């Protein structure tokens, strides 16, 4: 897929496309695709009908046309590229953390209080039936162990009746050297599906989070959505350590999922927006290949050395609060500002890029950009207002939308 057509999963906007392919106009009207509004893509070479009929009319100045003037991958863009690192770590840790906090050791068996003074092997030999996979994980002999001990019996009789574990389970923590929420709450045997159910709740939260934070990004800007997503992930992640039941844990995971993806995607879109077309593929791929992958590789070692599922949750959740510094470090989306009619604010931000990169944009280029923005906004004022509901009006669009949500 060409870089100009890359689509944001959360906001529905092309991070690399035209100036206002999805945002709302100053009047709150939904903007149509800029190519339909006479606002061509930087590389497409397209012209509006008026331009084709009137060769003397000034050429549209797309946002991408400005990037070569401020520097396609100058000092400021490189700083933003580095600032992606913590956000890539956040999303990797949020995504993979449940694997390490819901692990269940392969070897576990019924707890028998009467045999607690015996060794592990003696307890298993006397109380746990043997099947084709070894000692049973979910059943125990239904006998009077006090009487058996007094009679000096140390080996079970396979003909003894069996029952389910009535006093909980014991776990062998040799392979997984720490207790997890699954072992603490004993999500095994008939409850073995609960970790998977919690993960499903996580992704349900991600669906709603994408819709809500996408709306916030369109209505209030990318920076508020970025900060909101990370703060939500921080609060829900820390709250997870207080969970004492499946439903409490699932509720926390819902809100962690609510923040998932948006923790990073908003920053990802912002950085790609300010990087020139020639460098976008590099930045887009390397941010995932380097930052996300490295974070995913580090997470198992964090879980291993902390050896406590609660401490692991805290360790990977607290850093998300650093996102509150984003408004002072990361510029707001210039494309979003333009879509809101705040062209001068967008140009002010581009001026920071000029100063950091040591470049200078000619005044006539900015003036041409202003005129193009004014013309596009004027044309969009007559456009029909759209909402999320319109995604479900026609059968074809409804089917595509549902498939994208499910997949």
TrEMBL record:
It is found in: Membrane. PROSITE patterns: MFS. One of its GO terms (cellular component) is membrane. Pfam families: Sugar_tr. Gene3D superfamilies: MFS general substrate transporter like domains (1.20.1250.20). The chain crosses the membrane at residues 79-101, 197-216, 223-242, 254-275, 282-303, 309-330. One of its GO terms (molecular function) is transmembrane transporter activity. Residues 81-407 form the Major facilitator superfamily (MFS) profile domain. The keyword Transmembrane helix applies. It is a multi-pass membrane protein. Residues 1-63 are annotated as: Disordered. Keywords: Membrane, Transmembrane, Transmembrane helix. Residues 46-61 have a biased composition (Basic and acidic residues). This is Organic cation transporter protein. The lineage of its organism: Eukaryota, Metazoa, Ecdysozoa, Arthropoda, Hexapoda.
